[in-house]
Amino acid sequence: MLPKTTTYIEYACDLCGSDNPIEIPYSRIYSKGQPVHICGDCGFVYIKNRRSSEEIARVWTEEIYGEIYTAIKNPAVIARQTFVAEFLSSNLEIKNKKVFDIGAGEGFFLKYLKDNYGIDPMGVEPSKSNCQRLTELGISNYAGTVEQFVESKQGENYQADIVTIMWTLENCLSCIDMLNCASSLLPIGGKIIVATGSRILVPFKKPLFTYFSSNPTDSHCFRFSANSLQTALAKTGFKIIKTNHYLDNDILCVLAEKTADSNLLEIKKDKPLEVLSFFERWHQDSIYYMADWT
Predict the structure, then answer these.
(1) What's the predicted TM-score (pTM) here?
(2) How confident is the model at residue 140 (pLDDT cuts 50, 70, 90)?
(3) Which residues on neighbouring strands pair with residue 12, listed in sequence order?
(4) Which CATH superfamily, name and number, covers 9-292?
(5) Nearest to residue 194, comparing CAs of 220, 218, 224?
(6) Residue 107: CB partners within 8 Å, gap ≥ 6?
(7) Would you kindly state where each structural domain of the chain is located, as residue ranges?
């Protein structure tokens, strides 16, 4: 259950504004009694009850990752960041471009692009120890959230050519606010690339007990399908350029461009009952592997 001593606010759907949530059956089994919901109007998967953006960032930095987490020693993280780097470079000319990474971690991604493609890197990262490492790598950085950065003196006049968000958009208080912050850092025609796991309305790639977890659910407020991620980008003024072949890939990766006329952008929706049925089938499939769940 949610801690009684912490302040939570109940949110409606971030994409369509509807307050018509459908609880995912069995989600409490995998999330230590915490429910996960589907929007009854657009099919978006989200967490209703959330704390502040600062508190969510603190939970990730101090409670979930702490001092023991390191992406540098994790082959899976290195592989997926390398995939995003090569997906970006194969679809855009990035040499000498200013690349701003939201949730820069220990800097592997920015260093990879700097070493291989000569980009001008900048990262925002809540962890002060990670920012120290970014500094040691010669990467400009800001210790805090992107929302704090755009309101700071350092971010007042900053403009990037490309903003990157990798496995971070799902972990913030408001995906729309984060994308709006990203937009404010770009000129018209500037590019954004968002990467996350490809899990919703695709073939099952892991059992539910390794998808949901006992961590506080507001540390992972959103679960994107291709449609909902493209919709979030469209609602914040980004035109989709390229989406990877996510159906048979662990990664969902979308490249988009900031446009002056967002009214012309396509808004896509998932069918809520199809999403509900998908999770029910996923639960039934996961039962076969329950004996391995410890």
Answers:
(1) 0.92
(2) very high
(3) none
(4) Vaccinia Virus protein VP39 (3.40.50.150)
(5) 224
(6) 123, 130, 133, 134, 137, 139
(7) 9-292
Vertex 208: Cα angle to 1 and 7 (nearest 5): 25
Residue the block writes with tokens 């507001």 = 218
CA distance 237 to 266: 10
* Model confidence pLDDT, tens digit, residues 163-194: 999 999 999 899 999 999 999 999 999 999 99
Tokens of 17: 């504004």
Amino acid present at 20: N
C-alpha span between 267 and 149 (Å, rounded):
29
CB of 97 closer than 8 Å to CB of 162: yes
Cα–Cα nearest to 199, from 210, 186, 215: 210
Question: For the chain, what is the largest distance between any 2 Cα atoms, rounded to a whole number of angstroms?
Answer: 55
How far apart are the two ends of the chain, measured CA to CA in Å?
20
Rounded CA separation 194/196 (Å): 7
Question: 71-115 pLDDT, tens per residue?
Answer: 667 899 999 999 999 999 999 999 999 999 999 999 999 999 999
- Using DSSP, how many helices (H) and how many strands (E) does the chain show? 9, 13
